[in-house]
Amino acid sequence: GENVEQHPSTLSVQEGDSAVIKCTYSDSASNYFPWYKQELGKGPQLIIDIRSNVGEKKDQRIAVTLNKTAKHFSLHITETQPEDSAVYFCAASKANTGFQKLVFGTGTRLLVSP
Amino acid sequence: SAVISQKPSRDICQRGTSLTIQCQVDSQVTMMFWYRQQPGQSLTLIATANQGSEATYESGFVIDKFPISRPNLTFSTLTVSNMSPEDSSIYLCSVDAPGVGEQYFGPGTRLTVT
Questions:
Q1: Does residue B8 have a cis peptide bond before it, meaning omega lies within 30 degrees of 0?
Q2: What chain A residue is nearest to B5 in terms of C-alpha separation?
Q3: Which one in B8, B9, B22, B108 has a CA-CA gap of 20 to 30 Å to A58?
Q4: By the 8 A CB rule, do B2 and B101 touch?
Q5: Nearest-CA distance B18 → chain A (Å)
Q6: How far is Cα B65 from Cα B52, in angstroms, rounded to an integer?
Q7: End-to-end CA distance of chain B
Q8: Chains A and B: how many Cβ contacts under 8 Å?
Q9: pLDDT tens figures, A69-98
């Protein structure tokens, strides 16, 4: 089955710096890669996603890149703000196959210091 | 995105008892999912619930321990049966979204078993 690895487990940056979180997946049939942000005491919030027919996607200060050959994808946050502090999870699935199971990475705790 | 609510938001239960968690969505959805998030850990899929059919359980999870109901397209319940301290976790429901593969999560139910 699919296995998703995520690094680093913790990441501390200064406000205004960039943050990068990386994930690798094992199943070459996976075609959908979402990123979730989970704040303390809340459920995961979908912040951006990318599909296998796209190499990069941006939404304001966040972007995701996908390298299908290497089977890895990354989340980039620019101009970080204290409110970006949270746990971030990557995931992978084989969407549109009738098998929508999301397999999650282990999470990255991001701390943005003022 | 869909608005998802869960009840209860948290509970403290005694060993050997059962707890039923409710998940309500503000729109009709095809698939609902139940996840477990153990303290400080990632999310693990328990089962997928489609309306009108038996839930599909992931490896390591069984119906006797985690019975699920899906009576209509906006509601589902997960019961945690014969609880032990190892069942202390956050239980999250999610729903599929119009975008293929997308899932949105509820706020979670924080369960402590003593």
A1: yes
A2: A43
A3: B108
A4: no
A5: 23
A6: 21
A7: 36
A8: 56
A9: 999 999 999 999 999 999 999 999 987 666
